[in-house]
Amino acid sequence: MLLKLSLTGIKGRLRDYVVLFSGLVMASAIFYMFESLATNEVFLQQNSLVSSVVFIFHLGTVLLSIITFVYILYANSFLMTMRQKDYGMFMMLGAKGRKIAELIFVETFVVGVAATIVGILLGLGLTTIVEKLLTKQLEIAITHFSAVNGKAIAITLIFFAIIFLLAAVVNATTIVKKPVLSILKASETPAPAKRKKVTLFFEAVFGIALLAIGYVMMTLVMKLAFVALVIALITIVAGTYFFFHAVLIFILNLLKQTDSLALKGLNNFTFSQLSFRIQDYTRILSLVAMLFALALGAITVGLGFRNEIPKMTNQTAVYDLVLNNSQKIAADKIEGLNPTLNATYQQKETDTTVYYDKTEFNQTPLENKEFTGSRNTKTVRYSGEELAKDVTKVDALRQLELPEQKTKEHQFVSPAEFSAVQGKKSSLQVVKVNDFMAEKKALQKLATQNDKNNPTLVQGDNFTQKTAVYNTFNSLFSGFEFMGFFLGIAFLTMLASCLMFKILSGAKSDVQRYTMLEKIGTRRQLLTASIRKEIGVLFLVPGLLGVIHVLFGLKMFTSLLSEPYSNIWVPFLIFFVLYFVYYVLTIWIYTGIVMKREA
User: Fold this and answer.
1) How far is CA 546 from the centre of its chain?
2) How far apart are CA 58 and CA 38, in angstroms?
3) Which pairing describes strands 409-413 and 341-349: parallel, antiparallel, or unpaired?
4) CA terminus-to-terminus distance, the chain
């Protein structure tokens, strides 16, 4: 009978249970996605330049475990908020405490384990999809990665089973020990929210000062190194907490005292709701803001490394295509590239010497890259006369030649002298195009054909081909790109879900407030607008603070990235879309809880 009543109660709140179950499924799926990377040490070592990347991911596992644990707590709180009144009614009808405890234990544990199993299956699918999508869209090369990871599956199952076992025990013992009346009235007991104005003001100033110090330290990382990082970490974490604990509440109090704004519509009610709620949400909002910044930063830095690849390629390779024995390549294939530079240097080769017509270099000087600083290069040009006089400049030409030509003597002679030379004829052709990335596939085909036409290049160094340079840098940095995008999206999904369930767990206590407002004649449109504003602030403020953290935090990467802020709108857009989806979903569920549906 008790089980039947429980199933009836669940059926009556099926929509809420679907949301809860889907949230738990996503939590376990995201956890598995992360662990599929974190436990694959071969993948991490083969696809990253950071030697300590495995240790970093172990720390990330600890961090994700903490976030997941907090997330499960809020999801569990949402579950108990939905069911505790039903449990109280069962006890009023004479159900024994032991039976109620068993029912709660089984319900919590079974829902959790079932969600974990479904989540792992979903995680397998998502990991495969994300891996294929990222490797295709980002054109990155990753090795030793597999969506199916037995170790990750075991860790996910054990971790979630332990958490849900603890949650089931806590839920069962808590409900049984509480008096029936307190269970029935739990959602109607507000927490006190009294703050002294003077204390609030000084806490707000202190919080802003801490954030300012942290932001300054992040701009001084290159000068102060580890000291700046430690100070920035401490001050920004503490400043973020005080921002929600005092600064935001102080601002809301000022808004409530502004009659022109507070007395418009239900603004005063909305401000009061936010002031009351934020004091209870300080920790979760601080956590969301900090980890929002970490997740957004991960994607932004990953994108930054992607932007560095073509820049580093352009700084390394002067020509987009180099053809040895270019007479073997059809001219129309080169013309199809619409080249901005297409120069051919005739060669005559003997056993000891390679001869060039120096007038061809006078007409189209040889180009070379010279480093001017730690990461900057400039293009220099050598005429035929300069190459003939300065042996050191000939090295720029040797880099473009075949291996057997590089070791020979080089002579730059007049057209008449060149015609008189008896030797093997060939040609060296260099090409530049207007847009390397747009023509990359065509250039790669021609570079491959050049390798086939010149077998000795396989044994030598063909790093002079720009496509080879690009592929090399892409293979070096693609691991950072993949991990940045992969983990950033996973963390954001987890954090947005965590905030959503925290808001929904307090929805039951707001039912009476909205019911009273509706009974005294407040229009439903005003109530829904108030809900949108309230939840909008709870989502928007930690997101904006996280964005500010990222904007200052990118200063720390100026030594690794030439333009860390380039195309920053891309990760911001990704985060906005995902964040907005959770915002809309939270409004929909919250409105359904606090307001009765219209007939």
Assistant:
1) 13
2) 7
3) unpaired
4) 32
Residues with Cβ within 8 Å of residue 442, at least 6 apart in sequence: 336, 337
Q: What is the DSSP letter of 190?
A: P
Which pLDDT value is given to residue 145?
A: 62
Residue 355 has a pLDDT of 93
Q: What is the pLDDT of residues 475-505, one digit of tens each?
A: 767 666 766 776 677 777 777 877 887 787 7
Question: Residue 409 in 3-state DSSP?
Answer: strand
CA 48 from centre of chain: 16
Q: What pTM did the predictor assign? A: 0.68
Q: Does residue 138 register a pLDDT over 70?
A: no
- Helix ranges, 220-356 (H): 221-224, 226-242, 248-256, 259-262, 267-316, 331-335
d(CA 74, CA 72): 5
Q: What's the rounded Cα separation, in Å, for the pair 570 and 318?
A: 29
Arithmetic mean of pLDDT, 453-463? 69
The pLDDT-based confidence of 12 (bands split at 50, 70, 90) is low
Query: Cβ–Cβ contacts within 10 Å for residue 225, how many?
Result: 10
**Residues 452 and 25: beta-carbon distance below 8 Å:** no
Query: SS in 3 state form for 338-385?
Result: CCCEEEEEEEEECCCEEEEEHHHHHHCCEEEEEECCCCCEEEEEECHH
Beta-ladder partners of 379: 369
Confidence of residue 592 (pLDDT cuts 50, 70, 90): confident
Amino acid at 574: I
Give the neighbor-by-neighbor strand order of the sheet with 341-349.
321-324, 424-432, 341-349, 353-357, 409-413
Residue 175 to residue 169: CA distance in whole angstroms? 10
Local structure of 402: helix, strand or coil: coil
Q: Is the dihedral of CA 118, 120, 121, 127 positive or negative?
A: positive
Helix axes 466-505, 524-553, angle to 10 degrees: 140
pLDDT tens per residue, range 297-317: 877 877 777 777 888 888 888
Helix axes 524-553, 511-519, angle to 10 degrees: 140
**pLDDT tens, residue by residue, 141-150:** 555 666 677 8
- Residue with token string 């990335």: 437
> Residues of 51-76 as b/e, b for ≥16 C-beta within 10 angstroms?
eebbeebeebbeebbebbebbbbbbb
Residue 554 is classified by DSSP as G
As a whole number, mean pLDDT of residues 41-46 equals 62
Domain ranges of the chain: 1-189, 321-464
Tokens of residue 11, six digits:
């059926």
The SS3 assignment for 89 reads helix
Pairing of strands 424-432, 321-324: antiparallel
